[in-house]
What we know:
This protein is an alpha/beta fold. The chain has a domain at 73-200. The protein has seven helices and six strands. The strands form two sheets. A four-stranded mixed sheet has the order 3-2-4-5. Strands 1-6 form a two-stranded parallel ribbon. The termini are far apart. The mean pLDDT is 84.
Amino acid sequence: MAKVKMSKKATAIDMTAMCDVAFLLLTFFILTATAKQPEPLPVETPSSTVQVKLPETDLAIITIGDSGKVFFGVKAPDVRIRTLEAISDEYKISFTDEEKKRFSLMEEFGVPVNQLRTLIALSASERNQKGLQSGIPHDSLNNQLEKWVKAARNANAEVNEKQLNFAIKGDAKEQYPEIKKIMDILQKQKVNKFNLVTGLRSDNF
């Protein structure tokens, strides 16, 4: 009996709909993504195998690098404003509502209090120019960092009714005594638990 031969037909899949969906998703992610702001004090953190994530909320970060420069930042914008108001009362320097609003958009800063209004008036790109910010004073004669830490703790307790967490982000090349100064400032205010920011390192190295 003769075998019946099936006719071979070429199969074609219309990818138009798939391409449309892919481009729509790509456009959506591009339009909704938030660009990462450049850091005012870039640091190269030491490596570690620890994989503990920093808290997403109720967090303040103290960054130290560039031969002892210290920057300070609070995550929540409303806590930033309340912190600035407390510093305003402490140093008798008034800030307008517009200045407070601009300050609430600054993730980190590193200048003495008397230079803060000038820094706030600058654009984000101008603030991040290398060498523009000299760091927050934190020596025994003029310990402004201690004032900022205290003000931020009180502000977070008032706004969020929670304890503020702290993280120290130090450059790997920074000398230990400089990092120790920051730890001493925190411990002086009975902040004995804080995070050290590190980069992820493989267990094989």
